[in-house]
Amino acid sequence: MPQLLRVQNFTVSEDGIAAGWNQRLESPFGDVDRPERLFAWAGATAGWPGRVDPGGSRGLDDYFTRDFANNIGAEIMGRNKFGPWRGPWPDHQWRGWWGEEPPFHTPVFVMTHHERPSFTLSDTTFHFVGGDPATVLEQAREAARGKDVRLGGGVTTIRRFLEADLVDTMHVAVAPLELGSGLKLWESPDELLDRFHLEVVPSPSGVRHHLFWRG
Prior knowledge:
Layout: E1 5-12, E2 17-19, H1 40-43, H2 60-66, E3 72-78, H3 79-82, E4 108-111, E5 119-121, E6 124-129, H4 133-144, E7 148-153, H5 155-163, E8 169-174, E9 183-184, E10 196-202, E11 208-214
């Protein structure tokens, strides 16, 4: 079986926006009003990793939430999914948004022009790598040891890999709200139909799950 590069559970608004401008430490998603609305569909499921109470929804949304880590051996993310700083690192104290037990459970390759030493938290090792998308993907595939690689975002990173024609499958959840301005994955998902098949599956939560696979 080939190793796939997969986008999993990436969520955008009806107008294609995944995050606002002006990301900063106190506002990881930038200038977005109540960004948690984007991810409410996943947080409501029984399979949500952060759930501390019993219950939660079952069905389609829960299936995608539980499928997030299925056959994933490594993750690639952009630097601003890892942290809010641009340019040279002020120091190496920042170790991500996720605390001492990140949710990845695999090697993570953070794309950056300013490399820094790797470090490990729990069962996740973060590597800070330069290079173009194809070079980084090659490193991640080697670390994944035969499993697939997840392309975690954010928007700019996913668009770079799409432009390099390296993405094999995508699951994009479109939440039932408009954000107005911010970082857009697309103007319309139809932009990708020259390379991908697309099936759109509506959920009772109001989210529409967009499933792309190579044509």
